[in-house]
Amino acid sequence: MKKKLATLVITSAMSLLAAACGTVPGKVQPAEIDVRTLDTGSYNTDPAELRYDYTPNLTNGKQIAIMRLADVIAPGPDIDAKLDYGGAAPVLSPADATSIKFAENFVPVLTRHDMLYGMQTANSDRSENGPVEGDTAVNISVFQFPSDEAAAAAAQEFEAADFDIAKDQNQPVALNKYPKALSHWRPGIRTMGTRMARGSYVLSIFVRTPRSEVSDLAALAERVYDAQLPLLDTLPPVSKRDLLHLPFDPFGIFRKTFHPNDLFGVGIPGEMWLSDRAYLHFVDDKKATREIFRKTGVDAIGVVQNGISSDNNAAVAWRTRDFASAAALSDYLRGKSKRLVDSPPKMPDTFCSENVGFQPSSFTARNYNCTVRYDRFVGKVSSSQLLDAQQRAAAQYALFANSSW
Questions:
Q1: Which helix (H) or strand (E) holds 340?
Q2: Which of 87, 123, 338, 403 has the smallest CB count inside 10 Å?
Q3: Could you give the dihedral angle defined by the CA atoms of residues 347, 349, 350 and 353, in that order, rounded to the nearest 10 degrees?
């Protein structure tokens, strides 16, 4: 029953946030910079819709559906305050489930019942990947199927397939608060698997506790259901036809997020827009990030990255509550910077920093970050060269200004 989950983690400036920050009441907004005078290099400063024609298709629709689904999956700290680390991965097809180490014998179930899309999250109280002695962990997988009947059948078959991995040792477990949940554990092993059909969705949960006590495992599994089921009940399922009509960038944040390339699209984790809750799945230091979002009213985030590594993040943009909240968020990020370096000229609300510990000779490393502020928005751009980072920052500022309509 032991399962591993490969995760995609975005570690941006937000992963360093560890304390609250206040607002700056009554602060007067400065005169706006003439963006035509900024050194933006060769970067495009038009909003995304002027550079990219979104083409609805099944793959794009699934990507957008997963971003939508991420908003109704409970982050680790909502389940247990110490579950501060982890990541997430999309499931576009049954084959994806295999590639991210979902149990191989589950894949035929996904195929047989025509799974539409899904998402998996991993949460732990340790920063190390994989099980660590004495750790607590929760993995949540949510899949949508075409009908309630398909989901119900899939949940039964998931449980049977999981149980049969060690059929002579596993024992069924009844969860008192959730009698419809299908659960089992292996005595002496500190993990439990449990799943449940909920309308057209199947919720599959894997928990690990410090002790191999069934009461501990059952209590943690029930806490997951406590946090997860009310959220999932708020999300109407979609059909294959609906996938073709899900809106591109419904928050209007991706259009404002710097992108270094002229050719781009939609996809997790490279190009996406997320709610504040959804974003937590992709970062470590989840509690501090959640607290900062609450303090500054962050409700939408745009992400552009060139890989799954933290040093390949090209840009992140946050929409805060108001101008004062953006100033407070920017000031806090400045305070967390290890080594400040020269900022772009003519941009007083911008700072740049060097990522201490990265090897300057690394071809892929993003050695420099620059953070800009415009109205209620904060953006962070990264590059391996300081001048390029400064030009990206100028382009992000110009993009914020050019997309203010």
A1: strand 339-341
A2: 338
A3: 140
Pairing of strands 171-173, 182-185: antiparallel
Q: Which domains does the chain have, with CATH numbers?
A: 37-54+248-402 (3.40.1000), 58-233 (3.40.1000)
pTM across the whole model? 0.88
Tens digit of each residue's pLDDT (9 = 90 or more) over 60-112:
999 999 999 999 999 999 999 999 999 999 999 998 876 655 567 889 999 99
Q: What is the Cβ-side half-sphere exposure of residue 101, based on CA atoms within 13 angstroms?
A: 14
Q: Nearest 5°: phi and psi at 380?
A: -125, 130
Give one DSSP letter per residue of 104-128, joined into a string.
Answer: GGGHHHHHHTT--EEEEEEEESSSS
* Structure tokens belonging to residue 58: 């099944």
Q: Are the C-beta atoms of 337 and 388 separated by less than 8 Å?
A: no
Q: In what order do the strands lie in the sheet with 85-91?
A: 85-91, 117-124, 137-144, 201-208, 191-198, 182-185, 171-173
First-to-final CA distance of the chain: 52
Measure the CA–CA gap between 396 and 48, rounded to whole angstroms: 12
